[in-house]
Design a protein that fits this description.
This protein is of the alpha/beta class. The chain is built from 3 helices and 5 strands, in the order αβββαβαβ. It has a domain at 58-127: Nucleotidyltransferase, domain 5 (2-Layer Sandwich), CATH 3.30.420.270. 33% of the residues lie in helices and 16% in strands. It is elongated, with a radius of gyration of 27 Å.
Length: 132
C-alpha cells in the first residue's frame, strides 16, 4: 500500500508587508531624530554681533551660574578640561571649542577656564550667545 502525501503550498500574505514596512520606516525616522547632545540649563547672554559656526566639529564647555563646569554636558573639574583639550589638540587641532556660560555666571569661573586655554595656547575658541 502506497501512502501519498499532499503537498502544501505556503502562501505569504503580502497585504500586511506594506504595513510592516511602513512601521519600520516610522521607527527608523523617530530614532534618527533623537538628539543625544547633553545640555546644561543656562540663560544665554546676549551679544550685539554674533557669528555662526558649524556645529559638527566642536567641543563644548558649559559653566552654570554657580560656577560648576561641564564638559560636553558631563560634570568635570578644571584638570579634566586641561587633559581633554590637550587630547583634542593632539588628535584634531582644528576643532572649535565652545564656551557656554550662563548670563549670571561670575567672571572668575569663566576666567579659570580661559586661563587653562591660554596656558595650552588653544586658539580656536568661541563664546556662545543668544541671537539678538
Amino acid at each position: 500500500m502506497k501512502i501519498t502525501r499532499k503537498r502544501r503550498q505556503f502562501i505569504v500574505p503580502l497585504s500586511s508587508m506594506s504595513d510592516v514596512a511602513f512601521l519600520l520606516l516610522i521607527f527608523i525616522m523617530l530614532v534618527a531624530l533623537i538628539n543625544y547632545r547633553r545640555e546644561v540649563k543656562i540663560e544665554y547672554p546676549e551679544a550685539e554681533l554674533a557669528k555662526k559656526t558649524s556645529a559638527e566639529k566642536n567641543m563644548e564647555i558649559w559653566i552654570d551660574r554657580g560656577g560648576a563646569v561641564y564638559l560636553d554636558g558631563l560634570p568635570c573639574t578644571l584638570r579634566t578640561i586641561e587633559f581633554a583639550v590637550t587630547d583634542l589638540y593632539r588628535n584634531a587641532p582644528d576643532t572649535r571649542l565652545h564656551i557656554i556660560a550662563d548670563r549670571n555666571t561670575p567672571f572668575a569661573a569663566v576666567h579659570e577656564v580661559l586661563e587653562i586655554l591660554q596656558l595650552l595656547q588653544y586658539r580656536v575658541v568661541s563664546f556662545v550667545v543668544k541671537d539678538a
